[in-house]
Fold each of these.
Amino acid sequence: MSESEKPPEMTDDGPGQAGQASGGESNLGTGDLETVEKLRESYNRIRAELGKVIVGQDEVLEQILISIFSRGHSLLVGVPGLAKTLIISTLSRCLSLSFSRIQFTPDLMPSDITGTEVIQEDKGTGERNFRFLQGPIFANVILADEINRTPPKTQAALLEAMQERQVTAGGKKHELDEPFFVLATQNPIEQEGTYPLPEAQLDRFMFNILVDYPSEDEEVEIMKRTTIGQEAAVEEILNGEEIIQLQEIVRRVPVADEVIRYVLRLTRATRITKDEAPEYIKDWLAWGAGPRASQYLILGAKARAVLYGRNHVSAEDVQAVAYPVLRHRILTNFSAEAEGVSPETIIGRLIEDTPVHDTGTAGAAASG
């Protein structure tokens, strides 16, 4: 099934894991199943509203929505002019959320993002006190534009907000409003004067989403839409409270032990020091995926299953989110670069070689 196809009607069972959690019982009640159906319908409506403004980019839109309903953050990588900023701003309107755009530049300071304390005088008493002025990070949807153009100390200011959902200023913690998502963009072709994100920062992003060129027909439609001077109106589909409720439902979706073991085989096969790693992994990778990759594979698969109208997770869901979860968590070495082997190639081969069902042998991936 293509990721761009319309999700099917909701079903209550599936092959080998008929709505069963890893402990053998479903975590979803009757009311939760109704919420699952509501999320599927909302997903279809959001896609329809985004289609009024965005031409194509079906997989990109799906992956962004999966990360949002999983409470994750995403890094969008693509050349300029592919509507990365437009996708994010339009999505915030569909979800009735506050939106902030931060343009990362070499002279951007941490306080420019998080906020700063200023001295304010009480005109009645003459007393002076510090008052915290919130920065642009205090919004529901944050567009961190060209995040690799600012120095590491400013990039790190985003780290606490992404992980802890709070910022610290003047020794005081300031909670961020929920829901909260960071959607960062990065230009892959122009690296001069940039500051590549360290692996620890990259690992905070649930998805690394590749934004590719549109097809020929899509580009024709883009030219028609953007040269007539009309702007499409977008309806609000969900609000913040509804999104939080749907995020909680996603985490309660049951996952069979067999699917969990499949995820474990996929991630452990990327670790070059482990016996499970095939020979081509040891030849092409300098480092493999950590436990956070396994967590995000499960969460992403749960969200995708719900968006497609199912109350259980299948191996197909795991495979669909494997590329955006793993592509920034596996580090290729010089041999892979010399042979023209990309992370995409390695992930594709891992999916092909790793059996869905446990064969009872360690290192299930092929070693060729």
Amino acid sequence: MTKDDPMSSIKTLDHRTYSSEAYPEKTQVNGDLPVCPLTGSDNVIVLETFSTSLLIECYQRDLGLDVSSEFKNVQRLQLCHCPSSDLMFFYPSITGSREFYQKLHDFPWYFPETKFEYDHAATWITPHQEILDIGCGAAQFVQKFPETSYTGLDPNYRDEKKNVHTSHQILTETIEKHAMTNPHGYDVVCAFQVLEHVANPREFLTAALTCLRSGGLLILGVPSAESYVTQITNLVLNAPPHHVTWWTDQSLYSLAKEFQLSVLDLTHAPLESWETRLYWMQRMAEIFGTKQTTHFTESPYRRLSNIAAYLGAGLITPFANPPASAQGSSVIMVAQKEYFTPS
């Protein structure tokens, strides 16, 4: 894999087939038991257990990144499922350091200039509204609203790159810190491809909603756990220390219920140009791979089939257009704050 191409590996497993009968009982990791980070429920199912050394090796091979220090003394991870919320999450939750994200920012594909979720979110925003963009990166989203009141937050983005796209205010602080001094300060709060990186989504969402005025809109864009992304085995960018939660449509509705939000819209993005090779890689893996039973594996055959799928996708992508109905990796939820009292 090169800096110009965000690829990895492959797999197919429908999360809707998960059941307590089919998967092992909860087991302790570092002396603790997994708890759903959205609901706090301890009624969770462990889907897979795998070594952190597998991820360390894959990050080095696929992206040229040494992430060994990110895992510290954690030797293994569990992929868990909360039946009540439908949220999938990794346990323990190992999130990336500032240094980790600054290395990712060096990849030109990490912040696409245009995305469907920006265009879709823009249809819900009117002029003169005050917008808070959490995890704003280089503030690509504000290009849709050059005259609006916009504040971006990104504690990981390099200072010298902050103002590439805007003269608006961009702060290198967390949403939790921002909420302490800006309660009810915004008409729209957005977080595009952020929630899946957060170890404590409940704390994150509490702070985001504290910043939102009554009747305001919360717009979230996340990778869909029902897209091709979770069908790619050993896809390191869909694993710690990058992604720590996997969101289905049902889990987003569960989120809205937890925070008394009215869901106004839930839309899956179409396949976008920057992800075409990943799409074909997943399709090719269906041809080269055997029946897939895990998302993370050290199987030599699976690794070889991933390489074949990656190379095959590279040959197909310049000449074959995906079907018009092909679903992209992201899902966007627009929800309205009716009332909210931080607990």
Amino acid sequence: MIIRGLSALLRSGRRTRTFDLRVMSPTSYQLLYPALLLGYKDAGFFREKQVSLPKNIFMAEMADAPQAALLHKAGFVSIIGKPNVGKSTLMNQMVGERLSIITPKAQTTRHRIMGILNGEDFQIVYSDTPGIIEPKYALHQSMMHFVRMALEDADVLIWLTDIHEKHDESPVQALLQNVRVPVFLLINKIDLSNQAEVEAKVAHWEAQLPFLKAIIPLSARENFNVDTVLQQIKDCLPEHPPFFSKDEVTDKPARFFASEIIREKIFLNYKQEIPYSSEVVITAFKEVKDIIRISAEIMVERVSQKGILIGKGGASLKKVGIEARQDLEAFFGKQVFLEQFVKVEERWRNEPKKLKRFGYSGG
């Protein structure tokens, strides 16, 4: 009934009506795709309706052999877990690119960051998500909103835990109560443990959570057993055409990664409340042939924090800038000119309007 309804919808309306699948949510895409396949059987249908498909789906091939697209697997794989268990390290290893910033501090990741792994016959869209916490600020509520979005979109779930975790995973288990997709429990950081401890941990989770698809011990940092996880994920993916062009590795723009790299250096160079009270906004990003010119504003909540961040004679901020520029040049592959300004935005973590301006939403 859904397919017939969508087919009728596609066949109605004016000649200039366009459906751009690149801007649709994964759920909408999945609902619409069967109707598109029906449309391929109608000669000239897409030329008439001007349906906009992702670049990698070629009209001529699909018109001649619509079944070919179903030989390809694609899906969304969300990585969830408590803070500081290694979610960002795991996604970076899976994708083969350093897309998520990594620090020893909890709650480093604030956004849902997608990393795309492409193969000849598959595409995996990973989501690195913020660590699951009890929200104390509106910022935290937005972070947990990103987690819930990742859960809703997922075709496969990776629940990442730590070999030294004391079995207190109730916040994560609460989110998984209504999940109807395969769930893999990965026990990370086994390079810091021993065989007996790993076996005991696996036995504990097998007894507690029989619904799990598999329990896999691994070390994301050492890239141990990551290939095993990849193969198991591929086996669970649905048949589907790619959601993104095969040359894409993420859904985020360059400005986002510039702000994240600077924020990483703040997390690494400051203690106590400074990293958690700071946000980075890229106000200018101009790329020419040989150089990228970036202007960044670092927001803090109090005047006293501004003084600490800048440091005596600007020394602390200068150190952040030097370290960030080095990583920015490595990331973008060209010379970077970086200028930084520090501003006070009082209570920005608790004000929805400011959070929306900084790229956060929901709650």
Amino acid sequence: MTSLVLNKAGIYTLLMITTLLIGLTEFGLSGKPGALLLTLLFWSTIAQGCIALVAVCELVNARWMASLRRELLSLYPLLLLLPLLFLLLWPQLDLYPWTKHPNLWLNKPFFMTRNLALLLAVFFAGRHLARRSMAKQPAGPAAVIYLLLFVASQSLVAFDWFMSLVWPWISTLLGAYFFTEGLYGAAAVSGLLMLLYFKQKHAENGLPVTIHLRDIGLLMFGFSVLWGGLFFAQFLLLWYGNLPEEVGFILDLVSSSPGRELAWLFPLTLFLAPFLLLLAAPVKQNRHMVAGVAGVVLAGLFIERLCLVLPTVPMHGGVLLFYNLLLFALALVILHSSVHATSQID
């Protein structure tokens, strides 16, 4: 396994190779643009959310973060992969209905420019935060800057990447919904990391890992309640308003398979299952149970993105699976390298 340890240059080279593989697949084999867009919608939430969770913990001095700070921050190179993959969307922007009637805000050059600029800004802010935090330097201002950029970026992901795709359906709450899901997903990633590194962390002096595990379980429980509230708030407004342009999208979503089944599945995985399971104190103290709930939450986030995009954009299922397995393997390599070579964040 030590042969998989990469330095910073090796990781960035791997990012370029990953982008090249996805680009060749997208323009050579896929023929359908939805797989890349869905992959970006999901991984932008996870990658940006992991660094954002560290930023929040830096500001509130959360003690449980001491167990996983290095691992979560080590994922910051994934932030650079997002703008690289987003560039591949340029030839596929015709899937957006506004390209037939562009305006001042929604036109191809400005759409690409503002999103690329913000994705790059998030990467540089995340790298700066990671360097200061790992060097045990004051990271408060860096955390504030990153969180502001994170909120702006996830809001654009919600409004630009997704909502302009399903126009005329609109939701002013969607930006807050997306960046909340970013933090929720990061809490779930923390639960999986506890399963991977619990014994190692337990052996380190001065780290009450069992208490930190319970804190992660409590955090996921709290986010399940928050997510449920945001989801119900959006649903209530749509039901109360009963406007054709809002209700029409929901009806199209649930009128046929697999949208009908997916629309029932993701509320179960993002709210009901974690809420009920994490009510019990023993569950929050069992790393296998916490990791199991975390896996359910991450699966729910992916199912939700799939449910939202599938009725509008065609996609190749095999290509979608390949992209996400590739990025998952990349994240594992970066994580493994950080554990065995902490000097990569310098």
